[in-house]
Amino acid sequence: MADKNRGPGSDASRRYHDRVARQYDSIYEDPYWVFHDDLTWRMIKPFLPRNANAACADLGCGTGKWGLKLLKSGFPTTFLDNSAAMIEQVRPKLEAMGNRASKGTLVVSDIVSMPELASDTFELLVAMGDPLSICSDPKSAVREMARVLKAGGITIATADNKLAAIDHYVERGSIDALEDFVKSGKTNWLTADERERFELFTFTPASLRRLFESNGFEVIEVAGKTVIPARQNRKLLQQEGAADRLLRLEMELAKDPASAGRCAHLQIVARKQK
What we know:
Helix 8 (about 160-170) runs antiparallel to helix 9. The chain has helices at about 10-20, 25, 30-45, 65-70, 85-95, 130-135, 140-150, 160-170, 175-185, 205-215, 240-255, and strands at about 55-60, 75-80, 105-110, 120-125, 150-160, 185-190, 200-205, 215-225, 265-270. It contains eleven helices and nine strands. Strands 1, 2, 3, 4, 5, 6, 7, 8 and 9 form a nine-stranded mixed β-sheet that branches.
């Protein structure tokens, strides 16, 4: 029986990620993404469970970057992605961890419907790489996150920023397209293969907050990444000690919630209500 939450967009996304799985890590091997990942981990660490046996999950895990960090930190971790090819990239990394691999679980499933995961199980969920934007139904995904979390558990998730995409539509010169985008918040991931093109959902800081608050969460914070446009100005990262200095600036700027408005990606931290 077909899953009612999975549509053509979900299948297209899966086809794309299946195709790029083997080279996915290499796409992000440069100083900017090292900087970006260091920033992300700094933003996750304050919310790691105090209980070393707390169950964690990496949703939309891709090749497992964040789940592996959780596993190395000692937490039993479930890796979940709708792309079987991505999960196969995680498997040898997990096996290379020796005894710790026994605490890792691999699951092929879509975040909008995760029947493989039991309710009230996890104390921390991370959903990096904007799976909320990529999935076919963000509302269903957030409801599933609430279902599988224990009361008081934390979700940390990222999504594409609607405000950052406006320039793209302005540069296209079509007010019609701009109006449609501002109204719907939807855009598209375009690839050469039309079968791999899928819809993307974008959010403002306020609409991302509402999404979680209306589905059983208390929002702790919404921040942006990155406030400093280092991706467009990579020469900044070539200076000695630049990464550490920029990380300190990012953490300082993130204290002002308004700074998220200028970032390409939003990161929300939300607690399941008790």
